[in-house]
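Continuing from the previous page...

OK, I double-checked the sequence for Response regulator against my notes and this is the correct one:
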Amino acid sequence: MDKTEPFSRTLPAPTAARPLLGLTVLVIEDSRFACEAVRLLCLRSGARIRRADSLRSARRHLRVYRPSVMIVDLGLPDGNGIDLIRDLNQAQPRVEALLGTSGDVHLESAALEAGADGFLGKPVTSLATFQELILSALPPERHPPGPRRLSDETVAPDRIAFQDDMAHIANVLDDPPNEHALDYVAQFLSGLARSAQDDGLERAATALARKRASGEPTSSETAALAGLIQNRLSQPIAI
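Thanks. Re-ran it with the corrected sequence; updated structure tokens here:
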């Protein structure tokens, strides 16, 4: 296991310009588009980033590495991120900063009740919001010295990552549909569409979620989503 002491003198000290310098952020996130936004925010802030795309991958990662900060998506392909937050909050030693994230802001209270130190509502694009939320969960000795000007910078993830997410969900829908898969598709696409500001995709994902919640047939909503996904995949990307 990587047992690097978090306050070791070998780690670079944070600065006003790079307030998260010396931190390693582990992002538990199945969306490449959302993860790309966090990668850019970490890059601007001086933090290193690692990614796990499922609960299973996260638990495997934690057997080897000890991150300084963890950002846990609440809707993952193999379970609920709330369960991982609850386990991490009770673990010893505890991760220094533990955050939940979701496109559904109504889940913030559940994340905090499970033990999260804070909550990032998607889309995560504001550098100041990202830095301040992480710093607020860290002890004072992990903060940069002196005054610091809050940045008004925002980040814009690469559209290639959005296409990767579209391809991922297209593969999920190619398999015989089941209740778990359809719930996952609706949840995943709702958050992704909100982050990408794709109103048509968000409306279609919301329609599927509503039909699933009411127990009604979803064949037309699923077909509509599949068509929108293929349309997004066929769109050229400027390089």
